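BACKBONE GEOMETRY TOKENS:
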Amino acid sequence: MTSNLKIIKRDVFGKRETRKLRKDGFVPGVIYGADAEPVLVAVGEKELIAECYSSSFLGHIIDAKIGNKAEKFLPKEITFHPVTDKPIHIDFQRISADSKVKIGIAVEFVNEDKSPGLKKGGVINVIIHKLECLCSPTAIPEKIIVDVADKDIGYSFLLEDIKLPRGISPAFPERDAVLATIVGATSSEADEKTATGEEEAEATKTEG
């Protein structure tokens, strides 16, 4: 991805140094992995905030020169402040050409207007919002598409039936065996619809 992150190497750590770092407009972070020593870094807070809330941020490679060395890495995990929701720490995973990464890929359901189950008032009960996958860092898809066309109430979207992009394999196939199901409206929803229909009928009768 094209990133505007300002990333610099830092040589100090500790609570006092971290507080000063944040006061100066930086977020502490670390780059690790690929059998190399971890590198402490500081990321510009303003630039990070502009990018980190995107759902695709954790799935794109970032190239940057840290000190005198060119690094290639993925944003791996961001810690947010519990009150302000601002990023307060970020981990990056260093990658190489032959490395595999585990990453959560968003699952998107399409053709909902062509599903008889949804037309009847059913809903998609999503179990897996992001599928944990293993793949090459240079071939991370933005999303996994699940087609709901022609699917009726009671249908289960099984992982084994989903065609994953080439080179992608599920990290936990047994745990994530069922991605979603189409379920009927709950009794409360059905009662609400019935009540609404009765009210409309009564209003029509009154007007007549």
